[in-house]
Design a protein that fits this description.
15% strand
Length: 393
């Protein structure tokens, strides 16, 4: 873990930005401009011919570009492309490799809006989706067909935090020329680098840990240069999910503290998981780096550390879940995560929405499950808060 923290720290703190007119600024400049002009016809024409030159911020902006370069370096990728949301990144990263008649194979319990994309939108374009138990590589292999073009992974998965054997699945997909896409938001490139394990494309909701301050909505895709070029050519320019330079600047600020924040989230989450596992009103804790997790050994092979996100199954019914949540004082109720603040999100509330996808209602997520984000508050205070709330059961 310490080597990965040091590596990430070296990348995110190297902001020797030295374009003409800015000097050697410690912080990167915010270039909040929608367009960039040229002094001559020849320069203007050359910019279009060469590409990679700032012309219009919907294509390239220097501040946004610096954020992309930092994420690519963190992930060990050749290039990256930023988006206005995590779903913008997921949509662009999958649809760039799919056409009518193709299939996408996806693990169960993925992020809810990704589930909606695959089950509601893709069928309208003649693209089928198969859901599989990602913990079993043989089941994934059986689901792959000559029509499969994308294997979509999320390790660990949402709410239940199941892992996939990334090296094994990357080999299966590569043998069949299938593009692998993984959501790496939970672990961040500090603690998991899927590209080094053979995965093709990595996506993030940068709103979470990469930003880290609950003040920006963004997404990013990292991959080989040719894959990013395909995304940039096919989906990026027409989706319009463009990350603005101010949001990119906020993300660059967040990246500077990413290693130290992740180290603290991880240490606090381990203590919270251990406390919950020993409590009589807790049925089960879902945290990949807890010894009670059925894939603990796989977690040690793939992850050098963890985040602050876990879930707990309480020994109660839905009314008891409500009492537990209402008794919390430091854990606020909310749907996102990745910032300073600790959060609680009960699965039973997610079920209440008529728009909630089947990923919650049909994939075995119990109504007594509560997802917890362990923030950066003193862990002793968080344990007291949880103990008090559990006492209401």
């Amino acid at each position: 873990m310490h080597d990965d923290l040091a590596r990430a720290a070296a990348i995110v703190t190297s902001f020797d930005y030295d374009p003409a007119g800015f000097g050697r600024s410690v912080s990167p400049p915010l270039l909040e401009s929608s367009l960039f002009t040229f002094g001559s016809y020849e320069d203007f024409e050359e910019a279009f011919r060469r590409g990679g030159v700032p012309i219009y911020t919907r294509g390239i902006n220097p501040t946004t570009r610096l954020f992309e370069e930092k994420v690519a370096a963190l992930e060990g990728a050749e290039d990256a492309k930023a988006f206005a949301s995590g779903m913008g990144a997921i949509s662009a990263a999958t649809l760039a490799f799919l056409s009518s008649g193709d299939e996408l194979v996806c693990v169960r319990n993925v992020y809810g809006d990704a589930f909606k994309l695959f089950t509601r939108l893709l069928p309208r374009f003649g693209i089928a989706t198969r859901f599989v138990d990602g913990t079993d590589p043989s089941e994934v292999e059986r689901a792959l067909s000559p029509r499969t073009r994308v294997l979509y992974l999320e390790s660990p998965t949402s709410l239940t935090f199941e892992l996939q054997d990334l090296r094994a699945l990357a080999r299966l997909a590569r043998e069949r020329q299938i593009v692998t896409v993984i959501d790496n938001t939970w672990a961040t490139p500090v603690f998991q680098r899927p590209i080094e394990m053979g995965i093709d494309v990595v996506v993030h909701s940068a709103s979470k840990y990469l930003g880290g301050h609950s003040d920006v909505v963004a997404g990013v895709v990292a991959a080989r240069r040719d894959l990013i070029a395909q995304i940039t050519r096919i989906t990026y320019p027409v989706f319009g999910a463009v990350l603005g330079p101010f949001e990119a600047w906020l993300l660059l600020r967040g990246l500077r503290t990413l290693p130290v924040r992740m180290a603290q989230h991880y240490q606090s989450a381990l203590q919270v998981a251990a406390f919950l596992e020993g409590h009589p009103r807790v049925r089960r804790v879902h945290y990949p780096l807890s010894r009670s997790h059925p894939q603990y050994e796989l977690g040690l092979r793939q992850l050098s550390g963890g985040s602050g996100l876990l879930s707990v199954e309480l020994d109660t019914d839905e009314r008891g879940v409500a009492r537990f949540c209402n008794a919390l004082r430091l854990f606020r109720m909310g749907v996102s995560w990745g910032g300073f603040e600790s959060l609680a999100c009960p699965a039973s509330v997610l079920r209440a929405s008529p728009e909630q996808p089947k990923s919650v209602t049909e994939f075995g997520v119990p109504e007594s499950l509560v997802r917890l984000h362990v923030g950066l508050e003193p862990v002793g205070a968080l344990l007291e808060d949880l103990d008090g709330a559990l006492g209401q059961l």
